[in-house]
Structure formats: structure tokens, C-alpha cells
Give the backbone structure.
Amino acid sequence: MKAKKIAVLGSTGSIGTQTLDVIRMHSDRFKVQSVAARSNLELISKQIKEFVPEKAFIYDKDLACVLRARFPDIFVLSGEDGLCMLAQDREVDIVVNAIVGASGLIPSLCAVRAGKRLCTANKESLVMAGEILMSLAGQTGTKIIPIDSEHSALLQAMLSGSHSEISRLILTASGGPFFGKDVDYDTLKPEQALNHPNWSMGPKISIDSATMMNKALEVIEAHWLFDIPPEKIDVVIHPQSIIHSIVEFVDGSQIAQMSIPDMKLPVQYALTYPERLESTINALNLEELEELTFYPADRETFPALGLAFKALEIGGTAPAILNAADEIAVNAFLNGKIRFSEITSLVQECMNSIKITHRISLEDILDADRTARDWMVEGIKEQAR
Ligand code: NDP
Ligand code: MG
């Protein structure tokens, strides 16, 4: 069998490095065609040495010059258009989008437009432009396969029935590091919020998990990926992160996917879907599981969830505004500019302040993204005065 060529975008991050772990394990099936990072020169250099891709991308132009000098045989790209070139590279069979934030949107669009299989961890592109991406995938006849563990679980559970037989999607949420704890959200430090109990992830998603904004984004992601209306999507807190999500069918059956929490599993499933391959991940030892517990995830306790449902109800550019505002707020918290408790409230204020556009061309979405970012930067400055 000819090895499938993969573009690994965001190769130096948490999901990117785990994708390379999976590819290393199945080197007879997969070959790295390209790697891409923003600024981690040393790690991307190490990856180029090991995987010998044909192309590489580093956002920063000066760092790209260094990379070219180090690897004269490799085609090195940088700047705004480079990621898109990697995503639509003729040689590529599969694009893994493991970029964090809104920067993942254009590469997702380029991959789908070029008819590539898009395995995406980047939920932000679906939150911002789910309708456009899904309709484009329909036109080019390609598949968008989620890497997010909840959505991977849903995809697997969905194989048990037809779309019209689904009555509900139940997304599980660990609740993050503070669930059930008595915490002073005003004095909380970034290090505390970055310390997720079950998963080791990049900083943005770790903070999003602590505020539940991650689950909020995932509700929107599930809506677009699976074409399920918001009123049929629920969230339940499940602190052990063993059940990754559940599909409920009209006959009352609930099909769940369970495994130890390890992102290499959904990464591998996305690459091999609908097949399964052996992996290095041990199956659960059920006798050793102490307990599986579930708690309601109500929108009063977790206002971020309420914002997701509100954004879906409003539609248009509202989810893009939510996404952009959150990205700025999380950065501001990580840089000590705002308190943890202000993340969600500022996002809410931003959503209430910016005019929503109901036509949703890509231009409208990018425009909403920019406007929300500007609003947030000003709002945060104002607050500091
Ligand atoms: P990380 O912060 O660990 O990694 C982000 C990656 O994106 C890095 O390789 C970074 O490069 C790269 N990057 C950022 N901006 C650009 C850019 N403009 N051009 C090229 N590369 C860029 O994030 P995660 O791996 O945690 O998350 C990635 C995505 O996966 C997010 O959307 C997240 O929500 C999602 N996800 C992550 C999970 C996890 O377990 N980590 C689980 C489920 C979903 P550099 O290193 O040089 O900065
Ligand atoms: Mg997830």
C-alpha cells in the first residue's frame, strides 16, 4: 500500500507532536509531506531531521531564512499564504490542522477547497465558519474528520444508527481543574488554570477548559460537523474523562465511546477513519476504574456554555465574535492583564456590543473577527485605566 502523505500544520504543538508520534508508529502507512509552526525553530528543525518532509513552514520570515540555511534541500515557506500552499499541495492526501486559534481557518478552507481529507483539531475554524466549511466539503466531496476527543467519540458512536435516528448528542466535559473546588476566581494565577487534571494541552485550550469556553466552542463545533440543531446538544460534567461523549438514539439507546484519555487515539482514528489500526494505547482496565460520575452542566454555573447556545441562536457572525473575543481574553489573562473571572464577562460584553451580520461570507467572518479583537483590546485597555 502506498503511504498517505500528510501535511501536519501546527506540528510543534501538543496535538502536532502527538500526530507525529502516530505517524512514527505507522510509518508504513503514513509519510510526513510537510510540517508547519509559528516560531518554534528548534523543535521544527528536529522534526525536519527525523521525518525529512519535502516542505516546511514557519510563520516568521527571519526564522524561515534560518531554516532554509539549515535545510537547503527543503522548500521552506513563511508569511500569510504559506500555510494554504501546504494545505493544497498536490502531493498531500491528508491535512492535519493542529494550529491553535483563528489562524487555523484559512488552512482549513484551503484543504477542503482542494478536496483533501481534513483531520482537524482546530475547532476554531468550525466555530467561525462551520457553515462555509461543511458546504464546501459537500461540494468537493471531501470529509472533515474531527480530532477533538468528544467529536471523535460522537463520530464513532454515530456509526450505530442513521442521522434521522439521533435524538441527542451528549458532550462530556471534565469540568477543568476547578470543578467542585472552592476557588477564588479573582486571584487565580495562570499556572493554576493551566494545570488540567486529565489532559496535557496547549495554553489556550487549557484556559478554555477551566472557563468551560472549550466546551462552549465544542457545542458549536458539534452543531456544524454533525448537522444537529442546538436544542439536541447537551453537556454533562464527567470528571474522569473516560467517556468521551455519547450519541442518544430515538429508541432510548445511548452509545458512548470510552478509553483512557490520550489524544493519540482520536488522532489515529481521524487518520485511518473508517478503519482502525493497532495503537500503543492500552485499553481501559474496567476493574481498576474506581467510578464514573456525572453532574449537570447548567448554564448559570458555567456562563460560557450559555454564550455558545446564544451565539448559535443568533447565528451569522456571532460565533466568530465569541471565538475572537475569547482568544484575546485568554491571552490577556495569561499575560496578567485581566482576572480569570473577567474572561467570560468580557467575551459576553463584546458579543453584546458588536453588530452581528447575518450574511456569512468569508469576508464578513474575517471582518467580525477583526472587529471583535479590536473591541477586546480597547476594552481591556479601558479596564486597566
Ligand atoms: P499548542 O499551543 O500546543 O500548539 C499550537 C500549534 O500551532 C503550534 O505548533 C504552533 O507553533 C502552531 N501555530 C500557531 N499559530 C500558527 C500560525 N499562525 N502558523 C503556523 N503555526 C501556528 O495547541 P494545541 O496542540 O493544544 O491545540 C491545537 C488545536 O487543537 C486547538 O484548536 C485546540 O483547541 C485543539 N485541541 C487540542 C487538544 C489537546 O489535547 N491539546 C484536544 C482537542 C483539541 P509554535 O509551536 O511555533 O508556536
Ligand atoms: Mg475536546
